[in-house]
Specification:
Blueprint (H helix, E strand, L loop, with lengths): L1 H43 L8 E7 L2 E6 L2 E7 L4 E2 L10 H4 L6 E11 H5 L8 E8 L5 E6 H4 L12 H17 L2 E2 L3 H4 L4 H6 L8 E2 L4 E2 L5
Antiparallel strand pairs: 1-2, 2-3, 3-5, 4-5, 5-6, 6-7, 7-10, 8-9
Helix pairs in contact: 1-5
Length: 220
């Protein structure tokens, strides 16, 4: 039994540790690229005035990119996950060639209204507009906003590059900015409790995102 435990530690556990390290490095790179883009936007458009544009680190597993009325929240998952054998991606020839390729590190990207964070509106919804998964060969696939998904190759042909990091951040920003708000129906806000009035004054009648065109199905 000891030998089996050691074997598992030397294979799967080691793979997970190394994959988390790689995903964390990618997460830090995305934060760096986001900061560069933020500085470029400010430098090239000094007349933006008081519009919120900036990157803020929350902790080792989260940073924000605030741009105008939208905020992208990047979250590094601390656990490494394995795709189930019956998932669409696991059935690809590429992943069938090596079981270890089915293990992925994950980075989630949510879109919140900037006011949600500024005013700490705990009941406001955020939208998962992207999930980036990275395997041991430093190749990734992106699930989320359809327009972004189809701008990247299939997993087997999609290694991480500096150009793709920047492209991903820029496309995520455009996706958030282009997705307008939908005013809630009058009937939905015509009655509120006094608790709602006291606790959530700044969010009364908050509009919702119209909805992202998400894509998370096989393309192979």
């Amino acid at each position: 039994m000891i030998n089996k435990i050691l074997s598992k530690l030397e294979t799967t556990s080691k793979l997970k540790y190394e994959l988390y390290s790689s995903t964390r490095n990618l997460f830090l790179d995305l934060e760096r690229v986001a900061q560069e883009i933020s500085e470029e936007l400010r430098a090239n458009a000094p007349d933006l005035g008081e519009l919120r544009i900036g990157v803020k680190r929350i902790n080792d597993h989260e940073f924000l990119f605030q741009i105008g009325g939208d905020t992208l929240v990047f979250i590094l998952q601390s656990n490494i996950s394995r795709l189930s054998d019956d998932s669409y991606l696991s059935k690809s020839k590429y992943l069938r060639s090596d079981e270890e390729l089915k293990y992925f590190g994950q980075i989630l990207i949510y879109n919140f209204l900037s006011d949600t964070i500024v005013y700490n509106r705990l009941d406001d919804a955020g939208y998962l507009i992207g999930r980036l998964l990275l395997n041991k060969e430093q190749k990734f696939f992106f699930e989320g906003e359809r327009k972004i998904v189809f701008n990247f190759p299939e997993l087997k042909d999609n290694p991480v590059t500096e150009e793709k990091k920047r492209s991903l951040i820029e496309q995520l920003l455009m996706s958030a900015l282009e997705n307008d708000l939908l005013t809630p129906a009058f009937q939905d806000i015509m009655m509120i409790s006094y608790h709602q009035k006291v606790e959530h004054t700044s969010s009364m009648g908050s509009p919702k995102k119209i909805g992202f065109d998400l894509f998370a199905k096989a393309r192979e």
